[in-house]
Amino acid sequence: MVPWATLGLVALNVALFWHPIRSPGGSCLSVQTVWEQGQWHRLLLAPFHHLSLCHLLMNMATLFWLGRGMEQEVGSLRTGAVLLLLALLGGLLHLALNAFLAVATGHPWYWEHCAVGFSGVLFSLEAMGRQVEPLPVAVLASGVALTTRWLCILECLLLALVHPRSSFTGHVSGILAGLALSASPLQLGSGGSSN
């Protein structure tokens, strides 16, 4: 089966990298530009613009790996719809989280922090646990098992340490979007193809 939705999103990201609708600074997502200035179109632009070729290649390789697996399971139409829904939901959660942190800390950085790229969606997919069987990796004293599904949190923390300029709140928002969607009644993991 050809993963049409995944390949289409990879092609869209690559095309917008070489011929952007706006510069990354003109398409990035921040509380200031969206809520304060009313530039809601950034919710659609930000996930599909990248800062560098390395940023694009890392995100697209991961998208191909994760998206192809999901597409084989649920079909192209569902995969495309889920990925676009995760992009929008993750963007909204990113704005809400940064607005909350700006108010809670009194620090304007969260209000102004601007992010681009598809990695929030990738963290969503990882949080949904679609790419690996949720195997236990640790059991807490309370008897709660931590599974491979939660490794995306560790990955998010490590990425923030290794590359501090990456959008930690964008990645956390992606994780939250993935967890919210996987808990929804949409039955994304049920078999059957929706091509």
Describe the structure.
There is one protein chain. This protein is mostly helical. It has a single domain, classed as Rhomboid-like (Rhomboid-like fold), CATH 1.20.1540.10. Helix content is 63%, strand content 4%. The protein is built from 10 helices and 2 strands; from the N terminus they run H-H-H-H-H-H-H-H-E-E-H-H. A two-stranded antiparallel ribbon has the order 1-2. Helix 1 runs antiparallel to helix 5, helix 6 (76-105) packs across helix 10 (168-182) and helix 9 (151-162) packs antiparallel against helix 10 (168-182). The protein is globular, with a radius of gyration of 17 Å. The termini are close together. Mean pLDDT is 87; it is low at 189-195.
Distance between the termini: 10 Å
Strand order of the largest sheet: 1-2
Q: Could you please say which CATH topology applies here?
A: Rhomboid-like fold
Number of domains: 1
Number of helices: 10
CATH class call: Mainly Alpha
User: What Rg do the Cα atoms give?
Assistant: 17 Å
Query: What is the number of E strands?
Result: 2
| Class derived from helix and strand content | mainly alpha
Detail the topology: elements first, then pairings.
Layout (H helix, E strand, L loop, with lengths): L3 H15 L5 H4 L3 H6 L5 H4 L7 H22 L1 H30 L3 H4 L6 H10 L7 E4 L5 E3 L3 H12 L5 H15 L13
Antiparallel strand pairs: 1-2
